[in-house]
Amino acid sequence: MAKRLILVLGVVVVLLAGLGFAKFRQIESAVQASSFQPPPEAVTSVVTRREQWPATMNVIGTTEAVHGVTVSADLPGTVARINFDSGMAVHEGEILVELDTRQEKAQLASLEAQRDLAQQNFGRTQELLNAGVISRAEYDQATSQQKATEANVGEIKATIARKTIRAPFSGILGIRKVNLGQYLPAGSPIVSNQSLNPIYVNFGVPQQAAAQVHIGRSLHVTAEDIAGKVFGGNVTAIDSEVDPTTRNIQIQATLPNPEGKLRPGMFVQVELSLGASRDVIALPASAINYAPYGDSVFVITDLKDPKGQTYRGVKQTFVKVQGSRGDQVAIISGLNPGDEVVTSGVFKLRNGAAVQVNNKVQPGNSSAPKPEDS
To answer: How many angstroms separate the CA atoms of 193 and 196, rounded?
Structure first.
């Protein structure tokens, strides 16, 4: 019995020792894992330096014709003649459409005959009045009749003229909206007429920048649809009120457009000059880690691990971004010249992470990039 008890106790001791050794190995492995350092992340970098940037603002604008209308029929009538083609250039006063005026012309002939007779009667009446044959009242009646016939002739001539539809100003016509023989009610659209040279560009700027915008400020306009072409112009009008919804103030600029490449209604990119140049640190846009709580960059520096060993790592630094140009963004605070900043791979970094710099292939860092397909 005693031997059996000793045997059982021995087995229990062996099992406990085995479990204790296994637990010890687990704890040792966990301690080793907690002290494991991941390999350095491969990144690219650039050493910061100060640059002189022109004080500009980039906004989106919309082109608008200086003169732009939809030519319409003033009076109802049937289209008798069309004297233009869609898309053609016209000069002020050119006849575009003539409505049927045969009835008005017949009435004009009748009224002109009545006018001629009234003029002859008026001449005779004046002679009779001078001879004392008729009274002054009869002379006044003849005078009134002569003036009334003149007015009737003028009225019918005005009606005929209003049925001859002319270009109100020189410009480019749009797509024709009428056909020969078509009956047009009063006010029916015929064709759009847009004056393209010069042309307006309308855009909004935040109310904080409104004080820096003045009449005469220069600007440059580009359009994605017109590659390689930059249009220069000047601010010509500033709205008198701020939009309560967007807190922007509307600005209007006038641009020469001799080739007519800018068309009304186009979206364009506006680069507005705000005055003297400023001193900034320019970085590739890929270096910025944008976040709701603030924009930041990762600065490469010498750090120490828990064992006191020095390694190359990153320190997250918050910066203030103000403006962009080409591939670059302007940093106005948060960095000093000579700081080495990570330019790619920021999405995989954290504060204190180890990095290895490899600058064989770097992101775009030009203020005026030239795409390969341009």
So the answer is: 10
